[in-house]
């Protein structure tokens, strides 16, 4: 009995199984589990490499691409325990691919040229208006020149038009609506209206006069890539891409993009308008902005300030505001003399 394991066959009977049969079954189970995990991770990484957001659940998983390291490491450990050599090689390759794509997308070169004006930008999703009071406090403390506010309902817009804020920001462009559909741009600089992007949630546009220089402003807030709304999400990001492609000049596009640098639809906006992510320029491209309840470094960065190469960016800060699930993004920009 010391050389074999006892296993059941039929009621009232026993048989002896060769020692190690149970270990082999566990090994096979571990190899299967490792294979399933690696197949899932490889699908997502493959879509990243192919520059496509594909279909559910790929867009949702792409938002958390760096955190796919966890299931990949688990799969590699299972493959080691199962002595599955193919799985070991596969796991190492998957880790290498993840490490490659975790590098920030795009260039980190700052704009050169003589400075024209400093512009401090604050972008905040106040979650159905709930974070309005916290946003007002942040505006009072930081005194931004431009404020992009998403999910700013009627009450939020009314609150931001009261007292000293009305004086400090005499220019504004809004989509006035309730719930998540309301959005607002506040400005110390004179504004002219620009077309509002057709979208489910408000995405107003404007042109600011910054010391005699025209700067196109565009608030971003496409639908999130929920399982049944991936097509709509892609369409609305595509409309932002068209805005970026159509404008040749200084531009600031800011807000809650519901997308990260790992989404092809987001990278297409950058490429179309030759835009750069301010957080990337200041070395903060993986700083999470949502959900704000998750401790850092957990979460993902879906709130962005994108700028044309007329701007340099520094002092990027992500501010945790009460009563909203997004961190606000505060960026110090410098408008520089137009290239060429």
Structure description:
- This protein is an alpha+beta fold.
- Helices cover 35% and strands 26% of the residues.
- It contains ten helices and 14 strands.
- It has helices at 21-49, 58-62, 69-82, 85-101, 132-142, 154-159, 163-168, 230-246, 264-273, 278-281, and strands at residues 4-8, 14-18, 115-125, 146-150, 171-175, 183-187, 191-194, 205-210, 213-220, 251-256, 276-277, 303-307, 311-320, 327-336.
- A six-stranded mixed sheet has the order 5-6-4-3-14-13.
- Helix 1 packs parallel to helix 4 and helix 8 (230-246) packs parallel to helix 9.
Overall mean confidence score, pLDDT: 92
How many beta-strand runs?
Answer: 14
In DSSP terms, counting alpha (H) and pi (I) runs of 4 or more, how many helices?
A: 10
Strand numbers in spatial order across the main sheet = 5-6-4-3-14-13
Q: Radius of gyration over alpha carbons?
A: 25 Å
Strand content: 25-35%
Shape: elongated
List the helices and strands in order. Answer: EEHHHHEHEHHEEEEEHEHEHEEE
Describe the SSE topology:
Blueprint: E1 4-8, E2 14-18, H1 21-49, H2 58-62, H3 69-82, H4 85-101, E3 115-125, H5 132-142, E4 146-150, H6 154-159, H7 163-168, E5 171-175, E6 183-187, E7 191-194, E8 205-210, E9 213-220, H8 230-246, E10 251-256, H9 264-273, E11 276-277, H10 278-281, E12 303-307, E13 311-320, E14 327-336
Parallel strand pairs: 3-4, 9-10
Antiparallel strand pairs: 1-2, 3-14, 4-6, 5-6, 7-8, 8-9, 10-12, 11-12, 13-14
């Amino acid at each position: 009995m010391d050389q074999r394991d006892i296993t059941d066959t039929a009621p009232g009977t026993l048989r002896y199984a060769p020692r190690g049969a149970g270990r082999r079954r566990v090994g096979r189970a571990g190899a299967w589990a490792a294979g399933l995990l690696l197949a899932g991770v490889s699908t997502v990484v493959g879509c990243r490499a192919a520059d496509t957001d594909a279909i559910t659940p790929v867009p949702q998983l792409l938002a958390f691409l760096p955190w796919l390291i966890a299931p990949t490491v688990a799969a590699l450990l299972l493959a080691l325990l199962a002595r599955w050599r193919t799985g070991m090689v596969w796991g190492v390759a998957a880790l290498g691919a993840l490490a490659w794509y975790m590098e920030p997308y795009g260039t980190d070169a700052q704009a050169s040229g003589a400075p024209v004006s400093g512009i401090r930008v604050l972008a905040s999703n106040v979650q159905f208006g709930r974070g309005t009071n916290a946003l007002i406090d942040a505006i009072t403390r930081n005194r931004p020149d431009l404020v992009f506010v998403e999910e700013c309902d009627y009450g939020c817009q009314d609150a931001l038009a009261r007292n000293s804020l009305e004086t400090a920001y005499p220019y504004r462009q809004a989509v006035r609506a309730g719930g998540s559909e309301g959005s607002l741009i506040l400005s110390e600089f004179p504004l002219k209206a620009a077309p509002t992007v057709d979208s489910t949630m408000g995405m107003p546009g404007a042109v600011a006069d910054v010391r005699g220089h025209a700067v196109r402003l565009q608030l971003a807030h496409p639908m999130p890539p929920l399982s049944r709304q991936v097509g709509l999400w892609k369409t609305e990001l595509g409309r932002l891409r068209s805005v970026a492609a159509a404008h040749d000049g200084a531009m600031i596009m800011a807000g809650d993009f519901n997308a990260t640098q790992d989404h092809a639809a987001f990278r297409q906006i950058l490429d179309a308008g030759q835009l750069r992510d301010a957080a990337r320029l200041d070395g903060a491209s993986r700083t999470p902005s949502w959900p704000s309840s998750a401790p850092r470094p957990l979460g993902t960065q879906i709130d962005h300030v994108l700028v044309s190469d007329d701007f340099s960016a520094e002092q990027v800060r992500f501010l945790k505001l009460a009563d909203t699930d997004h961190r606000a993004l505060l960026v110090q920009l410098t408008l520089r003399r137009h290239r060429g």
